[in-house]
Request: fold
Amino acid sequence: MTTKVDLLSMLPEEMEQYFISIGEPKFRAKQTFSRLHRGERISEITNLSKGLRERLSAETLDTLPTVEEKLVSKLDGTVKYLFRLHDGACIESVFMRYKHGNTLCISSQVGCRMGCKFCASTIGGRARDLYPSELIGQVIAAEKDSGERISNIVMMGIGEPLDNYDNVIKFLRLVNHPDGLNIGYRHISLSTCGVVSGIEKLAGENFPITLSISLHAANDAARSEIMPINNKWNISELLSACVSYYKTTGRRISFEYTLISGKNDSEADAVELAQLLKNAFRGSGAPIHVNLIRVNEVKETGFKKGTPESVNAFAAALEKRGITATIRRKLGSDVNAACGQLRRSNLIKKEEI
Ligand code: SAH
Reply:
């Protein structure tokens, strides 16, 4: 990060302190906060004096992610953005249209250090965390570019949100603020590969967001093979954290399960998964929901997707055992390179030049 003041990462009360520190009245904070969150740059906030605008333009970061590349689906209008940040790093966000409103899938880090074997985002490791301004900047930039309001956010893009905990928490407060974008916590989902310490901390924050757990396997041997995080916190520790999260927050948790042909997609795997989840949540009263998705094939990983029939059979085996399963509807399948692949191909292109 530069030494410039990062106004867009500040809550109004923090902005007040900043204005006081430069000898300005604190009421400037409210105006500035709401106009920055509408996507205006400092130079456009004309209710600030010209002198102050010049000072702020020089001393503050005053940037939003810029559109480096944009793929628009011909099928359903889904837009996949490659955004460039102020230091040149690139991240991805995906704009999706659903009946219940527009949803933006955002990235939480530049790259990722979690090392999941099937995932394109983690191949080059993590370059850095995203700042709160860059988390909310994706939402503001996508609203500006599309001219449409975003009402739902999923943190399922590049990176592990609970590995960038403090900035993600700050982002949640910013995006929910009534003077800003005012997106309700119930319209926000956060997906984690299973950072148990983060799940425990999050339970104490009292945000009624939806938590998604990337499970992807029904036993430790299989999970450790594809998700290194499982060596730090195993399935039983992860599921106990989920049960406590449910007991503390009352929010249901959904499980993501990526089906990889010949690895985790047999009927026996479905039976084991159903048993595992039922045992873990027995007596808690929590509804259990599993989201199935066929693996997106990534050249470097060699994992293959199964047939649509095998996915249907897996879902049916779960349902038969009382577990609600949905097969994730693929929006933008013509632009839906697996998450992280657009950034990766851009990096490769740059290195070749
Ligand atoms: N780090 C977080 C959020 C980002 S990944 C997490 O792990 O949950 C968002 C989801 O996409 C996760 O469920 C992840 O396991 C899944 N995913 C990653 N690569 C994939 C691929 N090639 N095919 C299908 N799903 C994938």
User: Anything to note?
Assistant: The CA atoms of residues 107 and 158 lie 4 Å apart. Residues 114, 116, 118-119, 156, 160, 191-193, 214, 256, 258, 293, 295-296, 298, 338-339 surround S-adenosyl-L-homocysteine (CB under 6 Å). The two ends are 26 Å apart (CA to CA).
